[in-house]
């Protein structure tokens, strides 16, 4: 059956085909329904986009910009929504869905292939798909589909600028014909199962964005496992790259074989601004070619480095939402299973904004990495570092850190001139601590007011030797702290512990910005504030499994902004309300009215987060 042709002028004015996109919405039924309830692809023409109207047959859609959007970038910013945007755009050919297949929906005057059908859950693209206007196709997005291979007619897409195959977990081999797409500027193979990049990639001289995941290693035969992941000279040939992301299976020895060459070639690029790499060895940060800089000194505006030999864990002790938050920063460094603290790590730390220290074997404090190297740090996550005893150790002392919490105030004269008292971690906003077996304090000397002055969020999970969270001196520096979460710390007896001295005024309310407190699984907790006036702007507070906390003080519950108290009903009913402390009966009645018992039907942490 011949194609229906329209006049040349109308074709130029109205039939320009800019992009074609398959989208996960097809499978989730988010588009309008036609033809027996089957979902119809949401498609918008160029004219409809300009007018803001949507063809009722084709359905609504979201249109992506030409060129990479913020959401498609592998280097997300700190604020905003980092999820991928739906990108359905500019397709003048529409398809109806019948019996789980695509077939042409004829419209007068449109160029149409004679037939096109593909099963939704097992897509194999026919070569006829690209027979229509191949020279005009700019963008092809097949993300979140079950596509296994690209059609042989791929070279016909001479004008293609963006090829997106993100999250296609059955896609294992990229055709060498991709090298014929000489106008390609963006190639996204992230979260696929491909076994390697073809050598022909180096022909893509206009390529600016390359994202690739090598995770097909365990799902292929031994013959395919011999395929090189990245051939020598491939990265250096892509001279226009501004963003490079390579994620590899930690068990794949082929990546270990090529990673140094990839790093050396990367450091030779002149236009690179964003880089994501898994580096099995810390030495890779220092590798360089003659005449070029090393990765630890390469001027990047954004990076995500995972450094260290590690195996993928099926169960992680760090919540996935915390890990996701770590990824939101523009310069992220994760150090896994390190045994020492090499100079390359300290060098990269100087420009890092988010640091994740995971399973380090010897570090006794964060200070071992050099506080002077962490002045740009805004986010810090420490997990399963079994030798860490204190987070910031500013004083070399023969005393154990456990003693410093009580004695730091008594030694103020000897500490006053110590260099450790210089302002430190001024930009740190988030501090998350998980499973530190030997942790006994956060900061062991007296702190100047500038130290930790920007900290807003502090969480501590499973620190079995920690006895108290703050000393009075440390508490005095935390003027911006908004959220405090303490969970599974069996030796904690109070949140604030210590004595007043000339630097501490017990009449001034401390932690003036604190809005939310969650205290969970603290069997020895007997006091929150330790007699200090705290949290004048507290809004929400929650307790769970704190059986020895038998009374609440006006010094910790005085906030006029308090709107929710959560806890177990039996615990709340058994509290002792000392009349000398709670002389204002109206205040006590108000606290009773805002108490909300925890439900046994829902997860405790979920209920705390919903406060």
UniProtKB/TrEMBL annotation:
<feature type="region of interest" description="Disordered">
    <location>
        <begin position="31"/>
        <end position="83"/>
    </location>
</feature>
<dbReference type="InterPro" id="IPR050905">
    <property type="entry name" value="Plant_NBS-LRR"/>
</dbReference>
<feature type="domain" description="Disease resistance R13L4/SHOC-2-like LRR">
    <location>
        <begin position="137"/>
        <end position="283"/>
    </location>
</feature>
<dbReference type="Pfam" id="PF23598">
    <property type="entry name" value="LRR_14"/>
</dbReference>
<dbReference type="InterPro" id="IPR055414">
    <property type="entry name" value="LRR_R13L4/SHOC2-like"/>
</dbReference>
<feature type="domain" description="Disease resistance protein At4g27190-like leucine-rich repeats">
    <location>
        <begin position="395"/>
        <end position="489"/>
    </location>
</feature>
<dbReference type="InterPro" id="IPR057135">
    <property type="entry name" value="At4g27190-like_LRR"/>
</dbReference>
<dbReference type="InterPro" id="IPR032675">
    <property type="entry name" value="LRR_dom_sf"/>
</dbReference>
<dbReference type="Pfam" id="PF23247">
    <property type="entry name" value="LRR_RPS2"/>
</dbReference>
<keyword id="KW-0611">Plant defense</keyword>
<protein>
    <recommendedName>
        <fullName>Disease resistance protein</fullName>
    </recommendedName>
</protein>
<keyword id="KW-0677">Repeat</keyword>
<feature type="compositionally biased region" description="Polar residues">
    <location>
        <begin position="68"/>
        <end position="83"/>
    </location>
</feature>
